[in-house]
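Dear colleagues,

As part of the handover before I leave the project, I'm documenting each prediction I ran so the next person doesn't have to rerun anything. This entry is a single chain, and its sequence is reproduced below.
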Amino acid sequence: MRPFAFFAAHAVLVASLFSTVSLQAGEPVAAPLSKSVNLEKAIDWREHTIAPVADPILFEDAVIRNEIRPVFGYQNLADDFATQGGDLQVYGMQLRWAATPRLGLMMVKGGWNEFHPGVGEDADGFGDLGVGLKYALIDLPEHQFILTPGVTYEFPSGDEEVFQGNGDGLWNFFVSSQKALVTFTCRRTSASRSPMMTTGRAPSCTTTCRPTTTSAATSSPSSWPTVTPW
């Protein structure tokens, strides 16, 4: 019985070793700790960013992502304006779809406008519809940098009662970039708006920075500094 017990114990040990190896078969070999941490940061840095809230129609995120984003806007009108005060409220929705890891399709403008002047009758109606696409031309995860040009077109499909539906449409050409620094993630968008049937262009440039985090939790949008040079 002793030889049998001896061989049985060794058989169990050998089987356990093979079972451990089989469970790990096909798994990548673990890299040194320092390299694996750096690689993880390079791959996941975009997952810890969120889309900007400053000027959401013109300021486009450089990261290609899927997004359903409600938008609410409120503008108070000055008493010395033609309407003698009042306000404008906008209820909209933005949709973004990552067709590929580099190509994004989007609807950046569309919704319902309510106009309440200080004098005269209230008005409401649909806003113009804006759609477009963007492409991550330069995407360097190892350097935590992305550069994405794109274009949107605003159809004059809204109601004139709320000052929409004018002209022959509006093109918006933009280039957005994003870079993760040591403690901040900065993104910048430069855009040029070109109305149809005219030669006028209205360039704009917006930059935002926010603290970089190592988890999905992010800072409040109200805490992000925003700089608009022109």
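The longest strand covers residues 86-98. Confidence is low (pLDDT under 50) at residues 3-7, 12-31, 197-202, 212-230.

All the best with the project,
I.
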